Amino acid sequence: MSDRTREFARPSGRPSGRMPFLTAGSPQMVSNRGAREKVVLAPGHSAVDWEARKREETKRIRSRLPQFPMRLRKEDVKLHASRDDCWVSLGGKVYDITGYLDYHPGGVDKLLLVAGKDGTAMFNRYHPWVNFERMLDGCLVGFVL
Ligand code: HEM
């Protein structure tokens, strides 16, 4: 048996032959067919890093709001649709995700597609299992009327 293969036996005990087995240094999958688009995040931009950054973001966001929480119209959200000032509405809640952009595992570009808009459908299309209310709790700006 080579380093990169391991003998696998079926429950019956009948050997199923040599199966490729990924070990350190082994070639990775040759096809990414069906894989989802994941970007490489810059160092210091993991989910844990985001949690640590959030408190600071909350201060920045709240210091700019005339009141909290805000009651917003769709048109108000639309005014914040750039990389430097990015709001998104998710499930009727509006978040300032400017600081989160570089931490998104799906990349900045995907988030900018919904900048200033209702991103609920897109969000649910890609990852309904992600708990945005928890991840973006400190980024809440207010509610859409
Ligand atoms: C602002 C709210 C959003 C948050 C908090 C968020 C959060 C996340 C998180 C935590 C992941 C990793 C999921 C995992 O590994 O299971 C992820 C991946 C991803 N997201 Fe988002 N996302 C948001 C919005 C969006 C939107 C609007 C899109 C599409 C337009 C999108 C597209 C993607 C893609 C393509 C991935 C990579 C999928 C993969 O893991 O392979 N996300 N996002």
UniProtKB/TrEMBL annotation:
Keywords: Heme, Iron, Metal-binding. Residues 69-145 form the Cytochrome b5 heme-binding domain. InterPro entries: Cyt_B5-like_heme/steroid-bd, Cyt_B5-like_heme/steroid_sf, Cyt_B5_heme-BS, Cytochrome_b5/Flavoprotein_Rdt. Residues 1-28 are annotated as: Disordered. GO terms for molecular function: cytochrome-b5 reductase activity, acting on NAD(P)H; heme binding; metal ion binding. The keyword Metal-binding applies. Gene3D superfamilies: Cytochrome b5-like heme/steroid binding domain. Pfam families: Cyt-b5. GO terms for cellular component: cytoplasm. PANTHER family: CYTOCHROME B5 REDUCTASE 4, CYTOCHROME B5 REDUCTASE 4 FAMILY MEMBER. Belongs to the cytochrome b5 family. This is Cytochrome b5 heme-binding domain-containing protein.
